[in-house]
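Q&A log
Question type: sequence-to-structure
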Amino acid sequence: MEELDLHHIFSLGLILVMIAAGITAVAKKFKQPYPIALVVVGTIIGLINIPVLNPLIQVITEGEVFNFIVITLFLPALLGEAALKLPFSHLNKNKKPILALVLIGILLSFMIIGFSSMWLLHFTIPAAFVFAAVMSATDPVSVLSIFKTVGVPDRLATVIEGESLFNDGLAVVLFNISAFSLLSYLDLGWAGAGYGLWEFIKVVSLGFIIGGTLGYVFSLLTKYFDDYPLEIIFSIILFYGSFLLAETFHASGVIAVVVSALILGNYGAKIGMSPATKLNINNFWDVAALLANSLVFLMVGLEITRIDIMEKWGLIFTAILIVLAARSVAVYTSLWFIKKVPSSWMHILNWGGLKGSLSIALVLSLPRDFTGREEVLIMAFSVVLFSLVGQGLTIKPLISWLGVNKKEEGHKEFEELIARVYRFKNATLEIVKVKENLYMTEAVTKEILEQYQQKITESQDKMEMLFRKHSELKQKQQITLRKHSLYAQHEAIGRLLKEDIISSEVGEKEQDIITNKLVELESE
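Response status: OK
Response body:
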């Protein structure tokens, strides 16, 4: 009997994968955002009575099953894949807007939605702030899939992805405090506020510590193995191990995964991964993330059909307005004083703060006896559906209307040439390295190296032609070069100070000069 049940569950899972893969394939073929297509089709499937699929829908829409699949099974993989491929240099370069959105934005959103829900939706205090927490979590998958099709600046994509990775972790912490401890803290008055703040800091900090420690340890492991299947297994153990270990110690599993993956993808890749390993790890997690996202968004569509929204249209409309208003205040307030964030970017960050599967999984994890659970469930599901379909389908026209995806003439061709030259240069370096390590002769490598060198020369000649035609391309390259030279100068002065070769007075003066020049370059 047990074998039959397992066989039946596997069959249902395979059917779900086939449906998700088919919808994703069609959406990608027509260059449409597949998450939105999956949610829409999933909703339609859930509303239409299809006898063959009824057993599948019944299993998937069980709250405990959905919560386990999304949070425990898929969330570590999705967070790990995103953080693994996010260069730390990109995060560091955009740290001000990301930190502002994560630290200021989420708290503003949480407070506005929480108090507005008490006043306008007549929720109890715990229910209001649980709703606030789940609505403060953003899902970047849909909007980033749209970004790729319209070609927005990488920096904008980094900001929204960086915000979401850490934002989700903080939202989960706020959710747990609101659902299980908020009333106790309120009864204690100011002391309770202190306890709540300490709990928040402890959970987040412990998540950073666990994720950072495991990320560092597994990065060191990569130095001793040049075996990409084994290193892929290491990454799986790292992502799920950091999540489960953090949750075991009542820390933030989401933050632990993000931090560990960032360290592995940057430090680990630098000290211990060969080009083949990097390529294969990224390819593996690309496939895993696509499969997970496809299943999750299809399940979201199926799950949404389980709620009864009859006679609640007024409250649903109010809830949507509250969430949209809170997001607007959070984005525009937190980014107002940060330079180099254009107003058009703020509009996209505001409208692109979509809600997704994490919001639904969190609210489904509420205990059955939680006061106001059904009301919060209905509001959360309705906002997620509006967010994914309404906002998701309109953000692409918004990006085009704001002109964010416009690039200078010749820019795309220049980027292709840069990528080509970089690719060929690294190929020649790898050939030279293999030649030295494996004692290959000149006769073996000469012909291949000459072919790559010819391709590099051809690409560089085309670049020179583009520079003559579009002088601004050359200016951008020169700005990048000057930045790197100034960074090197700053580091050189630091070494002189460390060795006591120059006085701190002279060193600080020189570093101030360099810093001012960097600021001038940033403003160009």
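Response note: The mean pLDDT is 85.
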